[in-house]
Amino acid sequence: MMDVGVFDNVYTGRGNVTWTTGTLTDFLKRLGLFNACPVIPCLGVKLESSFHVCNIERIAGLKVQLTTNLHDHLLLREDIRTVFVFHHAAFLQNHRSSLVFPDGFIEETLETLALLFPKGNRQVEKWYKKKDWVKELDFAVLTISHPSRRVDGYNYWRDRLVTLKEAFDDSRPHSFGQWWHDRRDATQWYAVWIAVFFTVFFGLVQSVVGIMQLYKAYYPAPG
């Protein structure tokens, strides 16, 4: 579950990863991905229940690209508006006792998947089933529960979660669909759609009145 070697086109924008000497454990340590040393401050930041793969696409306007490369998990490329998500939960669950990964890494990665693929969320399930060929999907990702929503509780994935959270919060809807699904601020959402309703309603009333006046102009009442 790691892309190692030289590739003609690395879609994520990162450099090639080569492994020439040493053990697999040493090689992974040199990548720096499995070092629990976040640098972005996130005191008190909490991930709300609306923070999942469906809303990242339809509200934030980011493309969620499923990946088999653990190194790219939660990596956000703002230039192409794409975030990569490693979705192979069964692989992680089968490696809970592996000595390759540092303590707590597997469980923390599974918690990030529980955030992005909330258990029992039918919209997420429907989205996931349409995302790729069924044989390429790992439906164990839809069965993980009880994620931690406090960002400061993450060590390995904190910086990428904070970056993605900031992109999610800073996004503003630009289409009808995004306005409809964006309920992060319930008060604003209701205010917008109430205004839309009355605008459409009064516009319809004016149209009906105009049609009636036009009709009377062409067909005046007898006498």
Structure notes:
- This protein is mainly α.
- It folds into two domains: 25-172, no CATH class; 185-218.
- Helices cover 41% and strands 5% of the residues.
- The chain has helices at 24-31, 53-58, 89-94, 105-116, 122-129, 158-170, 176-181, 186-218, and strands at 63-67, 76-77, 82-86.
- Strands 1-3-2 form a three-stranded mixed beta sheet.
- The longest helix is centred in the last third of the chain and has 33 residues, at 186-218.
- The protein is elongated, with a radius of gyration of 24 Å.
- The model has no long low-confidence stretch (mean pLDDT 82).
The helix/strand class is: mainly alpha
Extended strand count: 3
Overall pLDDT, averaged?
82
Helix-residue proportion = 40-55%
Which terms would index this structure?
223 residues; mainly alpha; 8 helices; 3 strands; 41% helix
Question: What's the SSE blueprint?
Answer:
Blueprint: H1 24-31, H2 53-58, E1 63-67, E2 76-77, E3 82-86, H3 89-94, H4 105-116, H5 122-129, H6 158-170, H7 176-181, H8 186-218
Describe the structure concisely for a colleague.
By secondary structure, the chain is mainly alpha-helical.
